[in-house]
Amino acid sequence: MRGGAAAAVVLVFAVAGCKAETTTGSGGPEETGGSGAALTAAESLTVKGRAPKTGYDRDRFGTAWADTDSNDCDTRDDILKRDLEDVKFTGGDCKVSYGVLESDPYSGKEVTYRRGRSQVDIDHVVALSDAWQKGAKYWDAGKRIALANDPLNLLAVDASTNRSKGDGDTATWLPPNKGYRCTYVAAQVAVKKKYQLWVTAAEKSAMEKVLSGCPGQKLPTGGNPTEAPPRFHAD
Description:
Blueprint: E1 9-15, E2 18-24, E3 29-32, H1 37-44, H2 75-83, E4 85-89, E5 96-101, E6 111-114, E7 120-124, H3 128-132, H4 141-148, E8 154-158, H5 159-163, H6 181-194, H7 201-212, E9 220-222
Antiparallel strand pairs: 1-2, 3-9, 4-5, 5-6, 7-8
Helix pairs in contact: 1-6, 1-7
């Protein structure tokens, strides 16, 4: 059981060489679509060219790790509590001081989290700058803040592996851990569908190629609303 979070139920099954995994827990995806829903959703995504990165700034997505779900814990700690094992806290049950990522989804290795010298990142599965170039630059601040803090788009991962991703999409980066690729791509599809972000032709082709190798892959859903509470602001 993950410290400070509701017990997580993990369903793991192998399909065509991919490991498909769905986690239900505090702040995580709450349900999945039917078998094959991820590929069907990928096929339905709108295709456009990548817009210029002009005007992108992290501040356009609000203050990092805003408590948009109003549970008095910041988003980063919410995800650490959800994804780590053996969690320990400092001063209550919000600020995570220690935990273990028993099997990092991106690399497959075990990673220890210690606050202040962490080897764990919280990754935006759909990078914010990628989202900016595929629709988010035209949104109001509330929707951008929601995307940046939506548990559906967040994952605790090995920091060194995550740094190689940058703001890559499916066409330019996939996790080295091949067993997680179906789940990873399904998550990107889910976020892009939920927030009505478009994809490039190369990205859509890459998504379909991965998901065709695991045709039963389900589509994660859930997370937070697509509009942050009005008390939150972005530059």
